[in-house]
User: What shape does this take?
Amino acid sequence: MENKFKQLDDESVVSFGSCNLRVNQLLSYIYEFLKDKGWENIRNNLYSAGSGLIPKMSEELFLIKGIDCEVLKPGQNWQKGKLKIQISVEFQPDEPEIEAIPENTTAESSLDDIRRKLNQVN
Assistant: This one.
């Protein structure tokens, strides 16, 4: 199945049962959760899984500024840079969206077809 999820803008409103809120509000709650409990849990889980211990630092560095790190991509050497985690809210409609065709474009296309036919006759 093809992934047709698209990122929602901050002002879009989502509804979960009786809960309605803007995307920026939902993201704010997610960031607050990460600040309160999330980062320490992630750090501990990675350590428990034998992945090593990531440095203790604020979630702000991960989410806003980025943290110094190195990345190894297949077939390449280690590359130094910054790592930043972004969280987005995406949506996939149950029914495909129908793109509206501006009337001017349709009218111009029809006129272009008529001109082309007239030019072929001449």
